[in-house]
Structures are given as structure tokens and as C-alpha cells.
Design goal:
The protein is an all-alpha fold. The chain has two domains: 43 residues, no CATH class; 44 residues, Homeodomain-like (Arc Repressor Mutant, subunit A). Helix content is 65%, strand content 0%. α3 packs across α4. The longest helix is centred in the first third of the chain and has 29 residues. It starts with 13 loop residues before the first helix and ends with a helix.
């Protein structure tokens, strides 16, 4: 991370070094905040699923309430009907 220097009252160069230390500390904090901001931008926001797609999936569940475990073929069909990616259908069925 970064280090904080302690000011020495007996040292005549302490005031000169202190301003440099403050500058280095400010720069270190700026760098640290840039890193944190960079990480937050990498997090993907979750997209909302359209109501029409949810209706298609709910209808399938209503029809298959006693066996709600679709095969991969059925998942592909549901993805087509709901206009979603296969991965989206998979993630919705897991939750």
C-alpha cells in the first residue's frame, strides 16, 4: 500500500520533506481510488428479463408443475420462444 512518514521537529529539513510526503501520500491515495473505481466498472449490471419472456417460462412451469426439470432440448425451445439466450434460460431455471 503506502507509508506515512512521521514529522521530526528536530530535523531542519522536516518542513521540506513534509510537503513532499504530503504530495506522495495524495498521489498514493489517488492511485488507490483509481484502482477501486476500475474494479467497480468491471462488474456487469444484470439485465432485466422482458415480461413476455417470463410469461413463456411461467407457462411452461404451470404445464409441467409435477416434473419441472426441462431437458436441454426443451431449454433450447424455451430460449427460442422467449427470445433469450440459452445461458439466460439456464440461469433463470437455476434460481
Amino acid at each position: 500500500m503506502f507509508q506515512i512518514a512521521v514529522r521530526d521537529e528536530n530535523n531542519p529539513r522536516a518542513s521540506e520533506e513534509g510537503s513532499g510526503t504530503k504530495r506522495r501520500l495524495k498521489n498514493a491515495l489517488k492511485d488507490e481510488s483509481r484502482e477501486l473505481n476500475g474494479r467497480s466498472k468491471k462488474i456487469k449490471k444484470r439485465k432485466k428479463i422482458p415480461k413476455s419472456a417470463l410469461e413463456v417460462l411461467k407457462a411452461w412451469f404451470d404445464e409441467n408443475i409435477y416434473d419441472p426439470y426441462p431437458t436441454n432440448d426443451i431449454k433450447h425451445e424455451l430460449a427460442k420462444k422467449a427470445n433469450l439466450d440459452f445461458k439466460q434460460v439456464m440461469s433463470l431455471l437455476v434460481e
